[in-house]
Amino acid sequence: MDYLKAFLCGGILCAIGQILIDKTQLTPARILTGYVVSGVLLGAVGVYQPIADWGGAGATVPLTGFGFALAKGVKKSVEEKGWLGVFTGGLTATAGGIAAAVIFGALMALLFRPGDKR
Amino acid sequence: MSNKRIGQRTIQLGSSPAILSCANIGGKLEKQGPLAGCFDELHEDSFFGEKTWEKAESRMQQKVVQSALDKAKLHAGDLDYIFAGDLLNQCIGSSFGLRDFNIPFFGLYGACSTMGESLALAAMTIDGGFADKAAAVTSSHYCTAERQYRMPVPYGNQRAPTAQWTATAAGCCILGREGNGPYVTHITCGKIVDKGITDVNNMGAAMAPAAYDSISAFLQDTKTKPTDFDLILTGDLGELGHSIVQGFFERDGVDMSKNYLDCGMLLYDRKKQDMHAGGSGCGCSAAVLCGYLLPGLRAGKWRRILFAPTGALLSPTSSFQGESIPGVCHAVCISAEK
C-alpha cells in the first residue's frame, strides 16, 4: 500500500511537470526551480508535511521534496540558532542530497562516456 | 549603378557560376527520414568515430569537403576560397574541420541561413573574377547545438512540443567558373528582419518575416512570380512559419501555395520520428540542397529553384536578456541551364 501511495504521489507531481512542458512556455529550468520554490512555500505553510506523510518517497524524492527539506531545515535551525539559522538551515538539511548529487555525478562522468538519446 | 544589380537589391550573375559538385552527410535520424536515399554518407554513431560531438561536427565538414572534391576530381589546392560557417561559438565546427585543407578561409555566421550565405558569396566571388573555383560548406549537429543553445544532452533535458530538432548533417558545394550545371544565376542578400518575437520555441514565426522580405524582394526585382520556379524552399521554418509566409504573400495577392516547401519539413517524417516542430540547423538546408535539390536539377527533375534558407540571429545571452529574435534569409536562384 505504501508503494502504491508513493507511486501515485510521485506520479502526480511528474504529471504536473509534463502538463507544464506541453501546455505552457515555461522552460524546463523554470519548471525545476518552480518545483523547489513550491516545495519551500508549501513546506513553510505546513501543507507539504501531510503530503509527505501520505506519499512517503513519492513526495520527498521529487524536487518539491527538496524544497520541503530546505524549509524544514531553516525552521529547525532558526529554532536552535536564531537569525543565523535562516542562512545555515537550508544547506545543512540538504547537505546529504547535494553531496550525493555531486559525488555520484562526478563518478558517473568518470566511469561512462556521454551518449545521446536515440 | 553597377550593371550586375537589378531592381532594389538583387544581383544577376552574368557568368552563371556552375556548381561542379556537391556532397552531404547525415546522422541516425536523417537515416530514418524520407530523404535517407539522398545522402552520400549516413552514420548511426553521433560521435562519427570522434571523442566529442564538436569533433564529430568538424569531421562532418571535413568529410563533405573531401567528398565534393573527389566528385569534382579536384584537390584542395585547386580551390581559391572556402566559405564556411556553423552554429557553434566562434564557428569552431568549421575552423577545426577545415584547418588541414589549407584553403583561403572566409568564416561566416548566418545561423541556419549559412548554406544560402556561403553559396551566394562563393558564386559572387567567382562571378566577380576573384576566383576560379570556390567551395561553400556548412554543418550542424543535434548534440553540439543543444550544448550551445540549451543544455548538454547528457543532462537529460525534456523537449517542448514546439521544439525543433537540429539536424545532424553537413553539405558542401564546389563552384567553378566553367562547368555543367546547375548554375547560380541570381542572389538576393537578406536583411536583418526583427518583428519583436521573443519566444525561442517559435523560431518559425520569428524567421518568417525575413523569408517574406527576401523572397518578395527577389520576385519583385526579377519581375517573376512563384510559378516561374519549380520549387521555392525556405530552410527550417516548420509548419507554422511556412503557413505564416504563405499568409504574408496572400495579403500581397501572390499565390505561394503551389510550389513552396520547407527543407525542415522534407528532411524528417514528422509523425513517425517524433520531431515535434520539424528539422532545423544549418545542416538541414545544406543536406537537402546537396543531396536532393541539386541532384534533382542535374537529373532534369526541375528546371529552376529558389533556395532561401532562413536564420535566427539570436544567442543564448540575448535570450536570457529578454531580447527578441532577428531573422535573415538569403535567397539564391539555381537553374539547370545557364
Q: What labels describe this entry?
A:
heterodimer; A: 118 residues; mainly alpha; 6 helices; 0% strand; B: 338 residues; alpha/beta; 7-stranded mixed β-sheet; 6-stranded mixed β-sheet; 10 helices; 34% helix
Chart the SSEs and their pairings.
The complex is a heterodimer of chains A (118) and B (338).
Chain A: H1 2-23, H2 28-44, H3 48-55, H4 57-60, H5 63-81, H6 84-111
Helix pairs in contact in A: 2-5, 5-6
Chain B: E1 5-6, E2 10-12, E3 18-26, H1 28-31, E4 41-42, H2 53-72, E5 81-85, H3 92-98, E6 105-108, H4 114-127, E7 133-140, H5 142-149, E8 165-166, E9 169-176, E10 183-188, H6 203-222, E11 231-234, H7 238-251, E12 260-262, H8 263-267, E13 279-280, H9 282-298, E14 304-308, E15 310-312, H10 316-320, E16 327-329, E17 331-335
Parallel strand pairs in B: 3-4, 5-6, 5-7, 8-13, 11-12, 11-14
Antiparallel strand pairs in B: 1-2, 2-10, 3-9, 7-9, 10-17, 14-17, 15-16
